[in-house]
């Protein structure tokens, strides 16, 4: 029994283990991810630092240039120069240049032409590499993994010859294909490569990047970036896609700053406008190469003038990236679908704004989780289902606001499902256990009382089992004892079968009368009946019902005596004693045997009153005490017998013959 008190500890340990193991399952991870998205959305948007801008290679750019991808490198050169003129501090390419721009559309007979054209195209790669080396310009690179093989995909060799600055672009989506974490670095061949955002941050502040592998921290300037597996760090998204919008007074048709607004096509030389202007080729070949030329409509130059004159990019990091749908560089995020370049912008802005997300220490959280589980397990064991449900709701609401406010004001990510799930499991477990225990208790109550009390009383008792207090409680009751006179002599003079048949018939009829008058059969002791009134259900008229039972028992016995005489059988006689008062009532049996009974002076006196019928004979042989008479004095006719001294009492007790009830 003592161990049962600490069952909640075992339950807490088991649920804790289940929670930890469940946290590795796919459904748990995805559900937690959805809760994370919900909390990010409820947290709301974060104000931008105004230090990050996006230049988008958009539909307007491609439509205006009237060319196919890839865009000639000389346009990137011009765009970078104009971005710098507009005040940019750092320029970041979220565009990869893995191959040297070349043309291979002509046959072997035009080999000289191919070589001439490609030499012109490659010249721009070299120039792009040179300006990248000389300024704060970052080129995108990528690490590819095929099994155990890892290899770097840098810009093409023409650009790489100038040793440009590189920034890593990698996208680690979760199992639901949503992008919530950012890879801040990676390592290949013992060489560290840092992400576009981290590299841009270090250039912006002219700070070095240091890595503390032991503590899983990357340091640059005043920033410490804590990461976990695969160098991942949570992205503190500012808002939905389009948050880094451009100046609508410059170009109202573009969400971001449009790449086309940074190109001054009207001032370009004929050689720049047409790669093949100084090559004499036939019209058919020229038509096949039209996609590589720049025959375009007139472009409004005023947008570029506004960008430069207004110093739109003053002291900003400018990211150049594609938002074209056909490039499929879009990702699901907590705030909806977002182009990859804006994902970089979000992480970079949180770096510059010094509001990176932090994940709650895993080991501290496990300790906190176990304590919460242990406390709630104790609560569930101690209180009923309605009370624990209320506490559960309060705990869930408290954790909801705690997690939300921690995210909103402290950028702290606290697991949600790892708290919600175990609390719900514990509650449901205890609910089922208590239901089964209650069902078992009701079954025991019904089994114990259905043969000894009225069915409606049994049902009322089942509906409120608390009335059966285990261990006993003091109650105001009446007790009735009935015993067959000279039963031993009867058994000696009759066959066993006759004695049993008579006793069964007699006890059955007497039991019916007890039950019909709100009494319960406490026990049969051979031929003796002990009945209780006023328990387990309270009955204000317990004394009256006990006395009424005694009179009806006498009446029914008289009828049975007449019947037995007609059948030629010997008759029996009984004596009845009734007493009232306070007794200890309840389950006074053992741990193995349920025994609902009553003990105390009230019971002892009741038994002696029944025996007094031998000493003070009367017609109906019913003796009651002065205590019982006190309850029914206005409704009973009695005859005083005497003041009887009872063993165990200093004073005598007035006893009476019960004659009738009114």
SSE order and pairing:
Layout: H1 2-5, H2 7-22, H3 26-43, E1 52-57, H4 59-65, H5 73-85, E2 90-94, H6 111-134, E3 137-146, E4 149-153, H7 157-160, E5 165-168, E6 181-183, E7 185-188, E8 191-194, H8 196-204, E9 209-212, E10 217-220, E11 223-226, E12 232-234, E13 257-258, H9 270-273, H10 283-288, H11 302-309, E14 317-322, E15 330-333, E16 336-339, H12 340-352, E17 358-359, H13 362-382, H14 385-410, E18 412-413, H15 417-449, H16 455-463, E19 473-484, H17 487-493, H18 496-516, E20 519-525, E21 528-533, H19 542-566, E22 574-587, E23 596-599, H20 601-611, E24 622-625, H21 626-632, E25 636-644, E26 653-661
Parallel strand pairs: 1-13, 1-14, 2-3, 2-14, 3-5, 17-18, 22-24
Antiparallel strand pairs: 3-4, 6-12, 7-8, 9-10, 10-11, 15-16, 19-21, 19-22, 20-21, 22-23, 24-26, 25-26
Describe this structure in words.
The protein is α/β, with parallel strands linked by helices. Helices cover 43% and strands 21% of the residues. The protein is built from 21 helices and 26 strands. Strands 19, 20, 21, 22, 23, 24, 25 and 26 form an eight-stranded mixed β-sheet that branches. Strands 1, 2, 3, 4, 5, 13 and 14 form a seven-stranded mixed β-sheet that branches. The protein has a three-stranded antiparallel β-sheet with strand order 9-10-11, covered by helices on one side. Strand 7 (185-188) and strand 8 (191-194) form a beta hairpin. It is rod-shaped and about 140 Å long. The chain starts with a helix and ends with a strand. Residues 104-108, 268-282 and 284-300 have low confidence and may be disordered.
């Amino acid at each position: 029994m003592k161990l049962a008190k600490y069952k909640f500890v075992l339950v807490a340990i088991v649920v804790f283990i289940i929670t930890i193991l469940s946290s590795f399952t796919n459904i748990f991870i995805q559900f937690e991810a959805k809760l994370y998205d919900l909390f990010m959305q409820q947290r709301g948007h974060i104000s931008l630092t105004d230090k990050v801008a996006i230049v988008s290679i958009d539909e307007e750019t491609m439509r205006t240039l009237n060319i196919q991808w890839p865009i000639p490198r000389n346009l990137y050169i011009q765009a970078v120069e104009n971005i710098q003129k507009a005040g940019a501090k750092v320029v970041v390419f979220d565009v990869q240049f893995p191959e040297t721009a070349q043309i291979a559309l002509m046959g072997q007979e035009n080999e000289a032409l191919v070589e001439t054209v490609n030499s012109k195209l490659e010249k721009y790669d070299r120039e792009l590499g040179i300006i990248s080396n000389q300024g704060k310009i970052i080129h995108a690179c990528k690490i590819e993994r095929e099994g155990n093989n890892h290899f770097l995909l840098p810009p093409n060799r023409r650009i790489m010859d100038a040793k440009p600055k590189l920034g890593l672009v990698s996208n680690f989506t979760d199992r639901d294909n949503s992008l919530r974490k950012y890879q801040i670095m990676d390592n290949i061949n013992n060489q560290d490569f840092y992400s576009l955002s981290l590299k841009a941050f270090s250039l912006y502040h002219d700070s070095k990047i240091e890595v503390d592998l032991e503590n899983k921290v990357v340091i640059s300037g005043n920033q410490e970036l804590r990461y976990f597996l695969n160098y991942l760090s949570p992205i503190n998204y500012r808002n939905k896609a389009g948050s880094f919008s451009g100046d609508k007074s410059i170009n109202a048709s573009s969400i971001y700053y449009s790449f086309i607004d940074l190109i001054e096509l009207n001032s370009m030389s004929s050689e720049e406008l047409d790669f093949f202007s100084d090559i004499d080729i036939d019209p058919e070949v020229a038509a096949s190469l039209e996609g590589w030329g720049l025959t375009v409509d007139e472009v409004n130059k005023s947008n570029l003038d506004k960008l430069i004159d207004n110093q739109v990019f003053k002291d900003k990091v400018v990211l150049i990236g594609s938002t074209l749908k056909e490039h499929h560089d879009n990702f699901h995020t907590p705030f909806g679908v977002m182009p990859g370049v804006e994902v970089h912008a979000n992480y970079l802005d949180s770096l510059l704004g010094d509001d990176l997300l932090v994940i709650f220490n895993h080991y501290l959280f496990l300790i906190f989780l176990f304590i919460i589980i242990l406390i709630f397990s104790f609560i569930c064991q101690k209180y009923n289902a309605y009370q624990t449900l209320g506490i559960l709701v309060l705990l869930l609401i408290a954790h909801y606001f705690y997690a939300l406010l921690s995210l909103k004001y402290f950028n702290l990510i606290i697991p949600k499902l790892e708290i919600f799930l175990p609390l719900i499991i514990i509650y449901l477990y205890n609910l089922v256990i208590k239901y089964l225990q209650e069902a078992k208790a009701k079954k025991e109550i019904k089994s114990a009382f259905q043969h000894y009390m009225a069915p409606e009383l049994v049902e009322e008792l089942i509906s409120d089992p608390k009335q059966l207090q285990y261990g006993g409680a003091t109650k105001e009751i009446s007790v009735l004892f009935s015993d067959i006179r000279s039963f031993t002599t009867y058994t000696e003079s009759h066959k066993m079968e006759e004695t049993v048949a008579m006793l069964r018939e007699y006890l059955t009829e007497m039991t019916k009368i007890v039950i019909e008058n709100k009494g319960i059969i406490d026990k049969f002791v051979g031929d003796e009946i002990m009945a209780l009134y006023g328990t387990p259900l309270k009955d204000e008229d317990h004394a009256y019902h006990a006395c009424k039972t005694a009179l009806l028992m006498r009446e029914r016995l008289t009828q049975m005596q007449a019947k037995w005489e007609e059948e030629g059988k010997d008759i029996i006689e009984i004596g009845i004693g009734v007493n009232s008062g306070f007794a200890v009532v309840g389950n006074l049996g053992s741990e193995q045997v349920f025994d609902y009974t009553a003990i105390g002076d009230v019971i002892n006196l009741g038994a002696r009153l029944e025996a007094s019928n031998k000493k003070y004979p009367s017609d109906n042989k019913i003796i009651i005490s002065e205590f019982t008479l006190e309850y029914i004095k206005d409704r009973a006719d009695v005859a005083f017998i005497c003041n009887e001294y009872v063993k165990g009492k200093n004073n005598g007790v007035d006893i009476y013959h019960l004659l009738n009830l009114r």
